[in-house]
UniProtKB/TrEMBL annotation:
Principal place of residence: membrane
Stated name of the protein: MFS transporter, NNP family, nitrate/nitrite transporter
Protein localization: Membrane
Keyword annotations: Membrane, Nitrate assimilation, Transmembrane, Transmembrane helix
Provenance organism: Hydrocarboniphaga daqingensis
Length: 462
């Protein structure tokens, strides 16, 4: 099967007519609600801390738990997407993942809260399915943009939840209940959102442009990714590719930093700059809301540079963005004034989100036959980075110092992007597929223009 067969060569944002655009819109929406639910607890932690009397070590354990389990689930969900298809995988993750989101509202002890927070982390694997689904739906000339835009808009859920959840809790409290009851009722909102989107995903998406994997395999059609059955074969192929592990590191140092900031930002602004909960949530939310455009910008830039420089241009862009992220983090770590801290966070956040987008603009080109395994392993790298940052904070017990060391780590880790290289044959194959996608897009545009001419002539004659 031609890898470009039936893949979309353009992104028509206002259309839901094609399976490609339905998948695009529903996959970012699904990722959005998963991210919203994943970090819904974070801006409420100052209240929860008081209710349970949490110590610094216990809070650190909760932050680590929030991203720890995601490592394992991300490793599994990529090959599962190859095996069962992204439609079934995403629906299952949304419906099953809603259970601990609802459950945390009923936690009555630190231990119960920790277990539910650990389980909620599984929905962070949603990112891998989002990137997988857009990768199989879009052609090489726009896949970087599609991946980055879908992930970026989904990531914005982390910013929205920072700003919105304190307001939801205040709305509940306005009915005369106390804060302890208010935060619990608030957590029912993201759980309900996950159930609704899960049902929509099952109803309105399909696995790839040709249909669903089960039916295609039953018809004897060989798929682009995963071979005949996907699963373990996909995972083994990805594990053997050194490029996967280089991007595992880079993603740990961009998306891992993003996750870490989501978990600590609100509390950091409250503790360091003495902000109230609402203003701290808004400040922390500004970082997450950058994902609305910054991650997409990284993917767009990667697609643009690929026109002239190919795959080597994509890796060079990632290297430059990570340098900017590292320098910005070091600046942020030294700031003592709230307004400047917010500015510094936005600057390094811009580079961080763009680096995330540039990383996954590379993912579809690493190994097409092992796409699920590649997406899963690299995605897990993000959570490994977040867990490592959590342990670093626990060891240092100083958030600003932690940010400084993370900035230094990013500067060194940027070198992994440069190490990613491709053989001449690999680059030639991908260049040919890119050219085919561009030609297909031009042919489609020409056909549309030709079809419009008779109607225009008739209108003028009339």
């Amino acid at each position: 099967m031609n890898p470009n067969a039936s893949k979309a060569t353009s992104i028509d944002l206002l259309s839901l007519k094609t399976p490609q655009m339905r998948a695009f819109h529903l996959t970012w929406m699904a990722f959005f609600v998963c991210f919203f639910a994943w970090f819904a607890v974070a801006p409420l932690m100052p209240v929860i801390k008081g209710e349970f009397g949490l110590t610094k070590d216990q809070i650190a354990n909760i932050n680590i738990a929030a991203v720890g389990i995601t490592i394992l689930v991300r490793l599994l969900i990529g090959p599962l997407s190859d095996k069962f298809g992204p439609r079934a995988s995403y629906t299952g993750l949304l419906l099953v993942g809603s259970i601990p989101v609802f459950g945390i509202a009923f936690a009555q002890s630190y231990e119960a809260f920790l277990v539910f927070r650990l389980a909620i982390g599984a929905i962070g694997a949603s990112f891998v399915i989002t990137q997988y689904h857009t990768s199989v739906m879009f052609a090489p000339n726009v896949v970087g943009t599609a991946n980055a835009a879908a992930a970026g808009w989904g990531n914005a859920g982390g910013g929205v939840t920072q700003s919105l959840m304190p307001l939801v809790m205040l709305a509940v409290i306005s009915f005369g209940v106390d804060k302890a009851f208010g935060w619990r009722v608030s957590m029912l909102v993201p759980g309900a959102m996950m159930v609704i989107v899960g049902l929509l995903y099952w109803r309105y998406t399909q696995d790839c442009p040709q249909g669903n994997y089960a039916e295609l395999r039953a018809a004897g059609i060989t798929l682009e990714t995963g071979g005949k059955g996907g699963g373990w074969t996909s995972f083994k192929g990805a594990m053997a590719n050194y490029r996967v592990w280089m991007l595992f590191v880079t993603y740990g140092l961009c998306f891992g930093i993003e996750l870490f900031v989501h978990n600590v930002a609100a509390s950091y602004y409250v503790d360091t700059f003495k902000m109230d909960l609402q203003h701290a949530g808004l400040a922390a939310g500004s970082f997450g809301l950058l994902a609305l455009f910054a991650r997409a910008l990284g993917g767009i830039a990667s697609d643009k540079i690929a026109r002239a420089k190919g795959l080597d241009g994509r890796t060079l862009l990632l290297f430059v963005l990570m340098l900017g992220e590292g320098i910005g983090l070091i600046w942020f770590s030294s700031v003592q004034v709230a307004s400047i801290a917010i500015l510094a966070m936005i600057v390094f956040g811009l580079f961080t989100h763009m680096a995330c987008g540039a990383t996954y603009a590379l993912v579809p080109f690493i190994d097409r036959k092992s796409l699920g395994g590649v997406a899963g392993i690299i995605g897990a790298g993000g959570n490994v980075g977040a867990v490592a940052a959590g342990f670093l904070l626990k060891a240092l017990a100083d958030v600003q110092l932690t940010f400084f060391y993370l900035g230094v780590a990013v500067l060194f880790g940027a070198g992994c992007a440069i190490v990613v290289r491709f053989s001449a044959d690999h680059k030639q194959r991908e260049a040919e597929l890119y050219d085919q996608a561009v030609a297909s897009r031009a042919a489609t545009a020409a056909a549309a223009a030709t079809a419009a001419q008779p109607r225009t002539s008739e209108a003028l004659a009339g």
